[in-house]
Write a structure and sequence with these properties.
Elements (H helix, E strand, L loop, with lengths): L9 H11 L18 H12 L13 H9 L13 H13 L5 H12 L7 H45 L7 H47 L1
Length: 222
């Protein structure tokens, strides 16, 4: 495991780690080089740009085996003579985030309309991929402050809930228990938010995949 910071109390952990979210690295559209990379260079690039986002050393980024598997499963366009373009790195960056909460099949269903039309020999498709990723990156970067503000609002709500409980005499606890309860409730509230969004994402992808399947079946029946 990674070495964690040495905090004096739980409140410092919460406040400092929320602020640390602004330091999360993302891969900007112009970060990948314009040259083609071999697999070792690809994994090194991803490690250099994304490793600091992981809490644990055993949190796998994207290994050679994973990338080869993604290509076989058609989540990723095939390399060109065992080399990968900057567009491949865009796909891999998206997969890196998706794989934290989506299955391989769900990622495939989401990316299939792009990957099946993508071609390294088509300069228009390559430019389109670059422009799409640029818009995604800007949108996600713009979200960062809003996400942090939402978490801070959740923390304010949690603290008020605890204070109200104390004043009403519902719970009698020490400062140590109060601090733990703040951490516990904040994590639970954030987890609930993630759960609802995950359900929505899964249902959107599932229904979209079914829609595509129905369309293909109708075309076969014609």
């Amino acid at each position: 495991m990674s070495e964690y910071k040495h905090y004096d109390n739980i409140k410092d952990i919460i406040s400092n780690e929320i602020e640390a979210l602004k330091n999360i690295k993302t891969i900007a559209p112009d970060d990948p080089p314009d040259i083609y990379l071999y697999m070792d260079q690809v994994t090194a690039f991803l490690r250099d740009h994304l490793m600091n986002n992981n809490v644990h050393d055993d949190d796998k980024l994207l290994t050679k085996t994973m990338i080869n598997n993604y290509t076989k499963k058609k989540l990723l366009p095939p390399p060109v003579k065992k080399k990968y373009s900057k567009q491949h790195l865009y796909f891999l960056t998206l997969i890196y985030y998706y794989k934290n909460f989506l299955t391989i099949d769900e990622i495939h269903d989401l990316l299939e309309p792009i990957t099946e039309k993508y071609s390294e020999n088509d300069s228009v498709a390559m430019e389109y991929t670059y422009r799409c990723y640029s818009k995604i990156h800007k949108m996600c970067s713009d979200q960062q402050e809003g996400i942090m503000a939402d978490i801070k609002d959740d923390l304010t709500t949690v603290r008020k809930m605890i204070e109200d409980a104390k004043q009403e005499g519902e719970i009698d606890f020490s400062d140590e228990i109060e601090d733990y309860l703040e951490l516990f409730l904040l994590i639970t509230v954030i987890s609930n938010d993630i759960y609802y969004k995950k359900v929505l994402i899964e249902n959107l992808i599932g229904n979209y995949a079914q829609l595509n399947k129905d369309k293909k079946n109708k075309e076969k029946d014609k």
